[in-house]
Amino acid sequence: MTDQPLLSVRDLAVEFGHGAGVSRPVDGVGFEVGAREIVGIVGESGCGKSLTLLALLGLLPAGGRVAGGSITFGGRDLLGADPSVIRSLRGRQVALIPSDAGAALNPVARIGRQLRLSLRTHSPELNSQQRRGRALDALRRARLPRPEQALSAYPHELSGGMQQRSAIALGLQNEPVLLLADEPTTALDVSIQAEILRLLVQLRDELGTAIVFVTHDISTVREICDRVVVMYAGQVVEQGGVDEVLTSPSHPYTAALLGSIPPLGGVPPDQLETVPGMPPDPAAWPGGCRFQARCRHHVALGGPEECSSTWPGSADGVAVHAACHFPLDASPLEEVRR
Ligand SMILES: Nc1ncnc2c1ncn2[C@@H]1O[C@H](COP(=O)(O)OP(=O)(O)OP(=O)(O)O)[C@@H](O)[C@H]1O
Protein backbone atom coordinates (compact mmCIF):
# COMPACT_ATOMS: atom_id res chain seq x y z
CA MET A 1 0.00 0.00 0.00
CA THR A 2 1.34 3.44 -0.95
CA ASP A 3 1.16 6.41 1.44
CA GLN A 4 -1.63 7.95 -0.61
CA PRO A 5 -4.15 5.27 -1.55
CA LEU A 6 -6.18 5.71 -4.71
CA LEU A 7 -9.35 4.93 -2.77
CA SER A 8 -9.89 5.23 0.94
CA VAL A 9 -13.14 4.15 2.60
CA ARG A 10 -13.64 4.83 6.30
CA ASP A 11 -16.48 3.82 8.61
CA LEU A 12 -18.94 3.61 5.71
CA ALA A 13 -22.57 2.97 6.70
CA VAL A 14 -25.56 2.36 4.42
CA GLU A 15 -29.11 2.46 5.76
CA PHE A 16 -32.58 1.64 4.49
CA GLY A 17 -35.92 2.64 6.04
CA HIS A 18 -36.94 5.13 8.69
CA GLY A 19 -37.53 5.29 12.45
CA ALA A 20 -37.91 1.89 14.09
CA GLY A 21 -37.73 0.20 10.69
CA VAL A 22 -34.13 1.17 9.91
CA SER A 23 -31.70 -1.50 8.75
CA ARG A 24 -27.96 -0.91 8.34
CA PRO A 25 -26.62 -3.60 5.99
CA VAL A 26 -23.25 -1.80 5.67
CA ASP A 27 -22.12 -0.76 9.11
CA GLY A 28 -18.69 0.78 9.52
CA VAL A 29 -16.77 -0.61 6.54
CA GLY A 30 -13.24 0.61 5.94
CA PHE A 31 -10.50 -0.35 3.47
CA GLU A 32 -8.00 1.14 1.07
CA VAL A 33 -7.04 0.45 -2.53
CA GLY A 34 -3.65 1.46 -3.88
CA ALA A 35 -2.91 2.25 -7.53
CA ARG A 36 -2.57 -0.96 -9.62
CA GLU A 37 -3.81 -3.12 -6.76
CA ILE A 38 -6.43 -5.86 -7.05
CA VAL A 39 -8.39 -5.93 -3.81
CA GLY A 40 -10.95 -8.68 -3.21
CA ILE A 41 -14.01 -8.12 -1.03
CA VAL A 42 -15.25 -11.53 0.06
CA GLY A 43 -18.07 -12.79 2.26
CA GLU A 44 -21.29 -14.76 2.22
CA SER A 45 -24.36 -13.59 0.36
CA GLY A 46 -26.02 -10.60 2.05
CA CYS A 47 -22.96 -9.36 3.98
CA GLY A 48 -23.03 -5.98 2.22
CA LYS A 49 -20.43 -6.38 -0.54
CA SER A 50 -22.52 -5.06 -3.43
CA LEU A 51 -24.00 -2.18 -1.44
CA THR A 52 -20.47 -1.12 -0.52
CA LEU A 53 -19.55 -0.94 -4.23
CA LEU A 54 -22.75 0.84 -5.17
CA ALA A 55 -22.22 3.39 -2.39
CA LEU A 56 -18.79 4.15 -3.89
CA LEU A 57 -20.45 4.98 -7.19
CA GLY A 58 -23.38 6.92 -5.70
CA LEU A 59 -25.69 4.24 -7.13
CA LEU A 60 -27.49 2.84 -4.08
CA PRO A 61 -30.92 1.35 -4.79
CA ALA A 62 -34.03 3.43 -4.04
CA GLY A 63 -34.53 3.88 -0.30
CA GLY A 64 -30.84 3.36 0.48
CA ARG A 65 -28.60 6.16 1.74
CA VAL A 66 -25.08 6.61 3.00
CA ALA A 67 -25.58 7.19 6.72
CA GLY A 68 -22.00 7.87 7.71
CA GLY A 69 -18.32 7.56 6.95
CA SER A 70 -16.08 8.91 4.23
CA ILE A 71 -15.00 7.91 0.74
CA THR A 72 -11.90 9.56 -0.68
CA PHE A 73 -10.90 8.91 -4.29
CA GLY A 74 -7.70 10.39 -5.71
CA GLY A 75 -7.54 12.69 -2.68
CA ARG A 76 -11.08 13.96 -3.28
CA ASP A 77 -13.94 13.55 -0.80
CA LEU A 78 -16.74 11.84 -2.73
CA LEU A 79 -19.51 11.95 -0.16
CA GLY A 80 -19.32 15.72 0.18
CA ALA A 81 -18.95 16.21 -3.60
CA ASP A 82 -21.61 17.58 -5.90
CA PRO A 83 -23.55 14.79 -7.68
CA SER A 84 -22.26 16.13 -11.01
CA VAL A 85 -18.68 15.40 -9.83
CA ILE A 86 -19.61 11.79 -9.04
CA ARG A 87 -21.34 11.45 -12.41
CA SER A 88 -18.27 12.69 -14.24
CA LEU A 89 -16.01 10.27 -12.33
CA ARG A 90 -18.32 7.36 -13.04
CA GLY A 91 -17.52 5.77 -16.36
CA ARG A 92 -14.47 7.96 -16.90
CA GLN A 93 -12.20 7.35 -13.89
CA VAL A 94 -14.17 4.63 -12.15
CA ALA A 95 -16.03 1.91 -14.06
CA LEU A 96 -18.32 -0.87 -12.89
CA ILE A 97 -18.28 -4.39 -14.33
CA PRO A 98 -21.56 -6.01 -13.27
CA SER A 99 -22.19 -9.69 -12.61
CA ASP A 100 -24.69 -10.06 -15.40
CA ALA A 101 -23.30 -8.50 -18.57
CA GLY A 102 -26.39 -9.59 -20.47
CA ALA A 103 -28.51 -7.35 -18.27
CA ALA A 104 -25.99 -4.50 -18.28
CA LEU A 105 -25.75 -4.25 -22.07
CA ASN A 106 -28.58 -2.61 -23.99
CA PRO A 107 -30.28 -5.55 -25.81
CA VAL A 108 -31.48 -3.42 -28.73
CA ALA A 109 -28.23 -1.61 -29.56
CA ARG A 110 -25.25 -3.05 -31.37
CA ILE A 111 -22.08 -3.39 -29.26
CA GLY A 112 -20.24 -0.78 -31.35
CA ARG A 113 -23.01 1.76 -30.87
CA GLN A 114 -23.01 1.20 -27.09
CA LEU A 115 -19.27 1.71 -26.93
CA ARG A 116 -19.41 4.86 -29.08
CA LEU A 117 -22.27 6.37 -27.07
CA SER A 118 -20.34 5.93 -23.83
CA LEU A 119 -17.26 7.50 -25.46
CA ARG A 120 -19.35 10.42 -26.69
CA THR A 121 -20.47 11.07 -23.10
CA HIS A 122 -17.10 10.68 -21.41
CA SER A 123 -14.65 11.70 -24.14
CA PRO A 124 -16.52 14.34 -26.19
CA GLU A 125 -13.24 15.58 -27.69
CA LEU A 126 -13.02 12.48 -29.92
CA ASN A 127 -14.41 12.57 -33.47
CA SER A 128 -16.47 9.66 -34.82
CA GLN A 129 -13.50 7.93 -36.47
CA GLN A 130 -11.47 8.19 -33.28
CA ARG A 131 -14.43 6.82 -31.32
CA ARG A 132 -14.64 3.80 -33.62
CA GLY A 133 -10.88 3.23 -33.25
CA ARG A 134 -11.08 3.51 -29.46
CA ALA A 135 -14.06 1.11 -29.31
CA LEU A 136 -12.21 -1.42 -31.46
CA ASP A 137 -9.11 -1.10 -29.28
CA ALA A 138 -11.21 -1.72 -26.17
CA LEU A 139 -12.69 -4.90 -27.68
CA ARG A 140 -9.20 -6.09 -28.66
CA ARG A 141 -7.91 -5.39 -25.15
CA ALA A 142 -10.81 -7.39 -23.76
CA ARG A 143 -9.61 -10.22 -26.08
CA LEU A 144 -12.84 -10.47 -28.02
CA PRO A 145 -12.28 -12.77 -30.97
CA ARG A 146 -13.15 -11.00 -34.28
CA PRO A 147 -13.62 -7.55 -32.69
CA GLU A 148 -14.70 -5.91 -35.99
CA GLN A 149 -17.62 -8.32 -36.21
CA ALA A 150 -18.46 -7.80 -32.54
CA LEU A 151 -18.86 -4.07 -33.20
CA SER A 152 -21.88 -4.74 -35.38
CA ALA A 153 -23.36 -7.53 -33.24
CA TYR A 154 -26.31 -7.27 -30.88
CA PRO A 155 -25.65 -8.64 -27.36
CA HIS A 156 -27.89 -11.70 -27.91
CA GLU A 157 -25.71 -12.72 -30.86
CA LEU A 158 -22.73 -13.13 -28.51
CA SER A 159 -21.97 -15.93 -26.03
CA GLY A 160 -22.08 -15.19 -22.28
CA GLY A 161 -18.29 -14.93 -22.15
CA MET A 162 -18.21 -12.55 -25.11
CA GLN A 163 -20.95 -10.43 -23.57
CA GLN A 164 -18.88 -10.16 -20.39
CA ARG A 165 -15.80 -9.24 -22.45
CA SER A 166 -17.91 -6.55 -24.18
CA ALA A 167 -19.04 -5.22 -20.79
CA ILE A 168 -15.38 -5.12 -19.69
CA ALA A 169 -14.49 -3.27 -22.93
CA LEU A 170 -17.29 -0.80 -22.21
CA GLY A 171 -15.90 -0.20 -18.73
CA LEU A 172 -12.30 0.07 -19.89
CA GLN A 173 -12.48 2.16 -23.03
CA ASN A 174 -12.39 5.45 -21.12
CA GLU A 175 -9.24 4.19 -19.41
CA PRO A 176 -10.45 4.37 -15.81
CA VAL A 177 -7.94 4.17 -12.98
CA LEU A 178 -10.30 2.03 -10.91
CA LEU A 179 -12.51 -0.85 -11.99
CA LEU A 180 -15.21 -2.13 -9.65
CA ALA A 181 -16.13 -5.71 -10.55
CA ASP A 182 -19.16 -7.21 -8.81
CA GLU A 183 -19.11 -11.02 -9.13
CA PRO A 184 -18.10 -10.59 -12.79
CA THR A 185 -17.91 -14.32 -13.50
CA THR A 186 -20.82 -15.90 -11.61
CA ALA A 187 -23.10 -16.09 -14.65
CA LEU A 188 -20.44 -17.91 -16.73
CA ASP A 189 -19.26 -21.49 -17.26
CA VAL A 190 -16.27 -22.51 -15.15
CA SER A 191 -13.76 -22.50 -18.05
CA ILE A 192 -14.94 -19.05 -19.17
CA GLN A 193 -14.77 -17.81 -15.58
CA ALA A 194 -11.06 -18.65 -15.48
CA GLU A 195 -10.48 -16.78 -18.77
CA ILE A 196 -12.26 -13.65 -17.51
CA LEU A 197 -10.26 -13.71 -14.27
CA ARG A 198 -7.02 -14.00 -16.26
CA LEU A 199 -8.17 -11.13 -18.44
CA LEU A 200 -8.70 -8.85 -15.42
CA VAL A 201 -5.17 -9.54 -14.19
CA GLN A 202 -3.74 -8.94 -17.70
CA LEU A 203 -5.61 -5.63 -17.93
CA ARG A 204 -4.27 -4.51 -14.58
CA ASP A 205 -0.74 -5.44 -15.71
CA GLU A 206 -1.10 -3.70 -19.09
CA LEU A 207 -3.09 -0.61 -18.15
CA GLY A 208 -2.31 -0.23 -14.45
CA THR A 209 -6.02 -0.16 -13.57
CA ALA A 210 -6.70 -0.88 -9.90
CA ILE A 211 -9.55 -3.35 -9.36
CA VAL A 212 -11.96 -3.93 -6.49
CA PHE A 213 -13.25 -7.44 -7.01
CA VAL A 214 -16.37 -8.52 -5.12
CA THR A 215 -17.00 -12.24 -4.72
CA HIS A 216 -18.45 -14.83 -2.36
CA ASP A 217 -15.76 -17.26 -3.56
CA ILE A 218 -12.56 -17.04 -1.53
CA SER A 219 -10.69 -19.32 -3.97
CA THR A 220 -11.06 -16.63 -6.67
CA VAL A 221 -9.54 -14.11 -4.32
CA ARG A 222 -6.58 -16.42 -3.86
CA GLU A 223 -6.13 -16.58 -7.64
CA ILE A 224 -6.16 -12.94 -8.64
CA CYS A 225 -6.07 -10.52 -5.70
CA ASP A 226 -3.17 -8.76 -3.98
CA ARG A 227 -5.13 -7.94 -0.86
CA VAL A 228 -8.36 -9.17 0.65
CA VAL A 229 -11.12 -7.56 2.71
CA VAL A 230 -13.27 -10.16 4.49
CA MET A 231 -16.79 -8.94 5.28
CA TYR A 232 -19.31 -10.44 7.66
CA ALA A 233 -22.71 -8.98 8.59
CA GLY A 234 -22.02 -5.51 7.20
CA GLN A 235 -18.56 -5.15 8.75
CA VAL A 236 -14.95 -5.88 7.86
CA VAL A 237 -13.69 -8.70 10.06
CA GLU A 238 -10.23 -9.13 8.58
CA GLN A 239 -8.06 -7.63 5.87
CA GLY A 240 -4.51 -7.79 4.63
CA GLY A 241 -2.25 -9.32 1.98
CA VAL A 242 -3.77 -12.38 0.29
CA ASP A 243 -0.78 -14.60 1.04
CA GLU A 244 -0.81 -13.67 4.70
CA VAL A 245 -4.57 -13.75 5.32
CA LEU A 246 -5.36 -16.87 3.31
CA THR A 247 -2.36 -18.85 4.50
CA SER A 248 -2.74 -17.94 8.12
CA PRO A 249 -6.18 -16.44 8.81
CA SER A 250 -6.60 -14.66 12.12
CA HIS A 251 -10.39 -14.37 12.18
CA PRO A 252 -12.43 -17.55 12.74
CA TYR A 253 -14.82 -16.48 9.96
CA THR A 254 -11.98 -16.27 7.41
CA ALA A 255 -10.81 -19.70 8.58
CA ALA A 256 -14.36 -21.05 8.19
CA LEU A 257 -14.61 -19.67 4.63
CA LEU A 258 -11.27 -21.29 3.81
CA GLY A 259 -12.52 -24.57 5.25
CA SER A 260 -15.28 -24.56 2.66
CA ILE A 261 -12.89 -24.72 -0.34
CA PRO A 262 -10.31 -27.36 -1.33
CA PRO A 263 -6.83 -26.52 0.07
CA LEU A 264 -4.07 -25.33 -2.27
CA GLY A 265 -1.93 -28.37 -3.17
CA GLY A 266 -2.13 -31.30 -0.77
CA VAL A 267 -4.90 -33.87 -0.64
CA PRO A 268 -8.47 -32.54 -0.52
CA PRO A 269 -10.36 -33.68 2.61
CA ASP A 270 -13.22 -36.22 2.24
CA GLN A 271 -15.68 -33.52 3.13
CA LEU A 272 -15.34 -29.76 2.98
CA GLU A 273 -16.67 -27.79 5.94
CA THR A 274 -19.61 -25.42 5.70
CA VAL A 275 -20.19 -22.51 8.04
CA PRO A 276 -23.16 -23.68 10.13
CA GLY A 277 -26.08 -21.36 10.86
CA MET A 278 -27.17 -18.14 9.18
CA PRO A 279 -25.83 -14.58 9.37
CA PRO A 280 -27.85 -12.16 11.55
CA ASP A 281 -30.52 -9.78 10.22
CA PRO A 282 -29.29 -6.27 9.24
CA ALA A 283 -32.41 -4.81 10.92
CA ALA A 284 -31.35 -6.28 14.29
CA TRP A 285 -27.59 -6.68 14.51
CA PRO A 286 -26.54 -8.41 17.75
CA GLY A 287 -24.12 -6.61 20.08
CA GLY A 288 -20.45 -7.55 20.34
CA CYS A 289 -19.02 -9.81 17.66
CA ARG A 290 -21.68 -10.61 15.03
CA PHE A 291 -20.05 -13.93 14.13
CA GLN A 292 -20.10 -15.17 17.70
CA ALA A 293 -23.26 -17.31 17.35
CA ARG A 294 -21.62 -19.34 14.55
CA CYS A 295 -18.05 -19.31 15.85
CA ARG A 296 -16.47 -22.68 16.73
CA HIS A 297 -13.63 -20.81 18.35
CA HIS A 298 -16.01 -18.98 20.70
CA VAL A 299 -17.49 -22.32 21.78
CA ALA A 300 -14.05 -23.92 22.19
CA LEU A 301 -12.97 -21.04 24.44
CA GLY A 302 -16.01 -21.59 26.67
CA GLY A 303 -18.09 -18.62 25.43
CA PRO A 304 -16.06 -15.63 26.67
CA GLU A 305 -18.26 -12.71 27.77
CA GLU A 306 -16.45 -10.01 25.75
CA CYS A 307 -17.52 -11.69 22.48
CA SER A 308 -21.13 -10.74 23.21
CA SER A 309 -20.48 -7.37 24.83
CA THR A 310 -17.87 -5.51 22.75
CA TRP A 311 -17.22 -5.09 19.01
CA PRO A 312 -13.62 -6.20 18.62
CA GLY A 313 -12.80 -4.17 15.48
CA SER A 314 -11.33 -0.73 14.93
CA ALA A 315 -13.44 2.43 15.12
CA ASP A 316 -13.07 3.37 11.42
CA GLY A 317 -13.73 -0.14 10.12
CA VAL A 318 -10.17 -0.70 8.92
CA ALA A 319 -9.33 -3.87 10.80
CA VAL A 320 -5.56 -3.84 10.65
CA HIS A 321 -5.48 -7.41 11.80
CA ALA A 322 -8.65 -9.31 12.67
CA ALA A 323 -11.73 -7.95 14.38
CA CYS A 324 -11.69 -10.73 16.97
CA HIS A 325 -11.06 -10.70 20.72
CA PHE A 326 -9.26 -14.02 20.39
CA PRO A 327 -7.57 -14.09 16.96
CA LEU A 328 -6.51 -17.55 15.84
CA ASP A 329 -2.82 -16.76 15.43
CA ALA A 330 -2.71 -15.72 19.09
CA SER A 331 -4.90 -18.57 20.30
CA PRO A 332 -3.65 -21.01 22.91
CA LEU A 333 -6.08 -23.59 21.49
CA GLU A 334 -4.23 -25.55 18.83
CA GLU A 335 -7.35 -27.49 17.82
CA VAL A 336 -9.21 -24.42 16.58
CA ARG A 337 -6.31 -23.12 14.49
CA ARG A 338 -6.01 -24.15 10.87
N1 LIG B 1 -32.93 -2.40 -1.93
C1 LIG B 1 -32.77 -2.85 -0.67
N2 LIG B 1 -33.64 -2.52 0.31
C2 LIG B 1 -33.47 -2.96 1.57
N3 LIG B 1 -32.45 -3.74 1.98
C3 LIG B 1 -31.56 -4.10 1.04
C4 LIG B 1 -31.66 -3.68 -0.32
N4 LIG B 1 -30.62 -4.19 -1.01
C5 LIG B 1 -29.91 -4.91 -0.12
N5 LIG B 1 -30.46 -4.85 1.10
C6 LIG B 1 -29.99 -5.51 2.33
O1 LIG B 1 -28.60 -5.43 2.34
C7 LIG B 1 -28.03 -6.72 2.54
C8 LIG B 1 -26.72 -6.75 1.83
O2 LIG B 1 -26.94 -6.67 0.42
P1 LIG B 1 -25.75 -6.79 -0.63
O3 LIG B 1 -26.39 -6.89 -1.98
O4 LIG B 1 -24.77 -5.72 -0.43
O5 LIG B 1 -25.13 -8.19 -0.21
P2 LIG B 1 -23.95 -8.99 -0.92
O6 LIG B 1 -22.95 -9.28 0.12
O7 LIG B 1 -23.48 -8.28 -2.13
O8 LIG B 1 -24.70 -10.32 -1.30
P3 LIG B 1 -24.69 -11.15 -2.67
O9 LIG B 1 -23.37 -11.88 -2.69
O10 LIG B 1 -25.85 -12.07 -2.52
O11 LIG B 1 -24.85 -10.16 -3.77
C9 LIG B 1 -29.07 -7.69 2.02
O12 LIG B 1 -29.00 -8.92 2.63
C10 LIG B 1 -30.36 -6.98 2.40
O13 LIG B 1 -30.68 -7.30 3.75
Automatic annotation (TrEMBL):
Topology of the protein relative to the lipid bilayer: Peripheral membrane protein
**Does the entry feature the keyword Lyase, yes or no?**
no
Q: Read off the PROSITE patterns from this record.
A: ABC_TRANSPORTER_2 (PS50893)
Give the UniProt subcellular location, in the record's own words.
Cell membrane
Q: For the ABC transporter domain, which residue ranges apply? A: 7-258
* UniProt-listed GO biological process terms: peptide transport
- Check the record and name the Gene3D superfamilies matching this protein: P-loop containing nucleotide triphosphate hydrolases
> What would be one Pfam family of this protein?
ABC_tran
Tell me the keywords, alphabetical order. Answer: ATP-binding, Cell membrane, Membrane, Nucleotide-binding, Transport
UniProt keyword Secreted present: no
Q: Which GO terms describe its cellular component?
A: plasma membrane
Query: What would you give as a GO molecular function for this chain, any one?
Result: ATP hydrolysis activity
Indicate where this protein is primarily found: membrane
Q: Which family does it belong to?
A: Belongs to the ABC transporter superfamily.
Protein name as it appears in the record: Oligopeptide/dipeptide ABC transporter ATP-binding protein
From which lineage does this chain's organism come? Bacteria, Bacillati, Actinomycetota, Actinomycetes, Jiangellales
